[in-house]
Amino acid sequence: MRHEDEKRLSEPYPTERAESGRRFQSALGADIPHAATLVREIFNDLHPTSYGVSWWSLPSHERILISDYFYQCATGIELNLAEAKLHYLEWQEAREKENERIADMAYITDAGQIVSKIPPATKPMDELPNNMEKLQVCGFFRAVGSSLDCIGGAIVAVLGLPTNLRRSDINTARAMLGKVVDDGTPGARVKIEFRDFLEDVIIKTGPEDWFDWTNQYRNMVVHRGRRLIMNYFTGREPVLFDTRGFPIPRFTTTLHLAKHPDKSDVEATILGPTMLNEDASVTLDGVFKSSRNLLEAVCERLVSIWHERRKDPSLIAQPLSQWNSVAKNCRFKGYAPNTPPLPMQVFISHPSFKRRMLAASMDDQHRSLWNGSKWEIE
C-alpha cells in the first residue's frame, strides 16, 4: 500500500462507539450506510425461539435457511465492496513500483539519438510489480461483481422472487423481476415499481453500459480466457536536462483495460480499438463510485420495502422454492484427512453469531429440530 494510504489508515478511529464491524469500511471510503441498515433490520427479525424471520409463513427448516442466507447476502454487499477498494489501493502501489522500475529505460547518446530498452528482469522480484498490477485488477472486478451479486440475492429475498436464493445473483434478480406480471395485487405493484426503479438506477449511476461492461469484465477474469491489457509509455513531467543540454528521457506508464471484455482478443481487434482510451485509474475509480452509488440507492429502497412487508406480511409471500436440498454434498476432507479434530470447547465470535445460531436452532437444547431432516443426511 502507498505511504499516503498507510498514513491515512493509521489515523485513530474517531470514536470508540463506532460500529466495530463497519468502521474499517468507513475509513476506506467503502461504506454503504443503507446496506448496514438492511443488515440490522434482518438481524432484528431473526427470532431465537420462532426461528428465522418469524413473520414469514414457511416451514421452520426453509424459513431458517432462507433467513440466514439472506443475512449472509446482505452482509456481503459492503464486505465485498471494501475488498474492491483494498484491491484498488494495492493496485496503485504496484503501478507506482512498476513506474519506478521503467522510469530510466531510455538515454540519449552524444549524437542526440534516443535509445530505449525496458530494463531486463534479472530476478523474480523485478517482475513482481507488473504481475501484482494484473492480480489486483482481477481482484477488484471479482470483488465488485460479488458485491453486486450479493445485492442480487438481497433483492430476491426482499421481493420474494420465486427462484433459488442460493444460486441467485444480480442478473437472476433482474430476469425474475422481468417476469412479474401486474395481476392487480399490491405485491405485484411493489415488484414492478422496484423493477423500474432498479433499471433506472443502473442507467443513472454511470456512463452508458457501465454496468454491463463491469459484469463482462468480472466474468472474463473469473470464467474466461484472459484479455490483454496495455501499458502505454509517456514522458514524465517536469522535463530535466543533463550537462550537455539534452533532455533526460524519463518515462511513466498508463494502463488501459479491454474495451470489449466479453470478446476475444481477435474479435476485439476486428471491431477496431481494443482498449479504453482512459487510464485504468479513471476506470477503476469510476466503477467503484458507480457501484457504491447503485448499492446505496438499491439498499435504501430494499429497507423501505422490508418495512412494508413487516407491517403487512401478506403483501408478498416468501416462496418455498427459494431453498431446496438439491445441492451436491462435497466429501472433501482436506489434504491431511487424519489431522486431529480441532478442540471447540471455547468459541469466540462476534455477538451476532450467537443470535444467528439461536435463530437457526443450532444450540444444543434445540438442535433436535434438524434430526432426520433432508439437510442432515450427507
Spatial ordering of strands, largest sheet: 1-2
The shape, in one word, is: elongated
- Number of helical elements: 11
Q: How are helices and strands ordered from N to C?
A: HHHHEEHHHHEEEEHHH
Taken as a percent bin, the fraction of beta residues is 5-15%
In which range does the helix fraction lie? 40-55%
Rg, rounded, reads 26 Å
Largest sheet: 2 strands, antiparallel
Low-confidence segments: none
Rounded mean pLDDT is 93
Question: What's the count of strands?
Answer: 6
N- to C-terminal distance: 44 Å
Structural class: mainly alpha
What does the model show?
The chain is mainly alpha-helical and 378 residues long. The protein contains 11 helices and 6 strands. Helix 3 (33-45) packs antiparallel against helix 4.
What is the topology?
Elements: H1 3-9, H2 23-28, H3 33-45, H4 60-102, E1 106-108, E2 114-116, H5 124-158, H6 170-178, H7 186-204, H8 210-223, E3 230-235, E4 240-241, E5 247-248, E6 251-256, H9 265-271, H10 280-311, H11 351-359
Antiparallel strand pairs: 1-2, 3-6, 4-5
Helix pairs in contact: 3-4, 3-10, 4-5, 4-10, 5-6, 5-8, 5-10, 7-10
Task: Give a concise summary.
The protein has 378 residues and is mainly α. Helices cover 51% and strands 6% of the residues. It has a two-stranded antiparallel ribbon.
